[in-house]
Design goal:
1 helix; Alpha-Beta Plaits; binds iron/sulfur cluster
Length: 64
């Protein structure tokens, strides 16, 4: 399982990027993307997906 970033909603603020324990979030085409191969949904790291917790935009980071 993984999350994905909705590119039309992402403001490219970058707040999520440094918080990802698996370094799955990277700049991509002017916004950010999550690598579904490495996103663990923060399982074993924290109770809440860190990127979802950090993102200020509604429905920006959603289950892939
Ligand atoms: S859910 Fe966790 S592991 Fe997946 S992209 Fe967000 S911060 Fe990274
Ligand atoms: S915190 Fe949300 S709006 Fe900001 S870069 Fe990450 S996904 Fe985009």
């Amino acid at each position: 399982m993984a999350f994905q970033i909705v590119r039309d909603v992402c403001t490219a603020c970058g707040d999520c990027e440094p918080l990802c324990p698996t370094k799955s979030i990277t700049p991509f085409k002017g916004v950010y993307k999550i690598d579904a191969e490495t996103c663990t949904e923060c399982e074993g790291e924290s109770d809440m997906p860190q990127c979802v917790d950090a993102c200020m935009e509604d429905d920006c980071i959603v289950p892939a």
